[in-house]
Amino acid sequence: MSLDLDRNPVYVIGVGMHPYQNPSSTPYVELGLTAIRAALADAGIAWGDVRAAVVGTALVAVASGRPMLRHLGSNGLSITHVENASATGSTAVRTAIAEIVAGGADVALAVGVDKLTPRPDGFTASGRPGLGNDVIVPVTDFALFAEAYMGMYGVERDALAAVAVKNHRNGLLNPNAQRRESLSLAEVLASPPIAGVLTKHQCCPVGEGAAAVLLASEAGLQRLGIDRSRVVRVAASVSRSERPYLGAEIADKELTRTTTEIALRAAGITPADLDILEVHDAFSIEELAYIEAVGLAAPGEAGAGVLAGRFDIGGECAVSPSGGLISMGHPIGPTGVGQIAEITAQLRGEAGARQHPGARIGLAHMLGVGAVCVEHVLIKD
Q1: What is the CA radius of gyration of the chain?
Q2: Is residue 210 situated within a structural domain?
Q3: Which end of the chain has fewer CB atoms at under 10 Å, N or C?
Q4: pTM of this prediction?
């Protein structure tokens, strides 16, 4: 379903991050507050100006937002908590947008925060969902898909490794990235194998961090006197779940294709219009699959495009200019919010050394355990 953003426009007015990092002793409250305060400063507004907050966490305990947000002041705003696996942060953003579209708030916060330790008030961490005996872990699933994809299209291992080389190169330029290192194709291929053809540097790290996005309606912009030169319009917000896909290479790719078609149609654009694409590249094969599903390359040709530099910063479309999940990291709750923050910076022309020239339109794509897909199209008018 796509939210009606034509009659009820919603804008990103501020973004903030706590850098993604390896697990540490830093409390989740500090992670989240760092991102929120940065977003408030970026928007130039006060906490009291915010009317609703949506908190996305997948690994921290239930109802974690209140112990965190109380440090900013108790102002009676609406607080909602969401969890949607890897799509948790994207769902938090979509829920905040829906709150504005429905008229419940003219300014809303979406914040994602996660870490692997219990929260400080004694509640235990929710932990990870268990897997049944007949369920394989995601890395094995995608390693099997990688083997099938390579065999089907005659793609070599270099194409998968090139995704990791590109994304590590981008992440090296991103101060918020968890894994910042320059790697050659040979080094990626020689890194320890995790499953099948997927090596360590082709798989995302899971650490901790936070990301925050502030959104506003037209009324919110006017009430707060927001500088329109820096706002970015949300042109589409779409959420879909999987269904049977007969003959599909892999359900995640087909779910991405159908969700993207709805998102691009709602935004009134085509794949060729995209300047920035942030995808759920938890494993290198995923980026190739989703580049094709979005419509930027024909089936089996995304790898050649990566090797040729088509999807580099400065290429036809910058794919994962943040470094993607592979380099920026995948702390779960913040990941989808961080994608919105990256695209906003790119469309404002504020991405620094990783700036893609002339960026005006971006698409953020996230999957949650392969069963759900949440996408947002952002446009700088």
Answers
A1: 19
A2: yes
A3: N
A4: 0.95
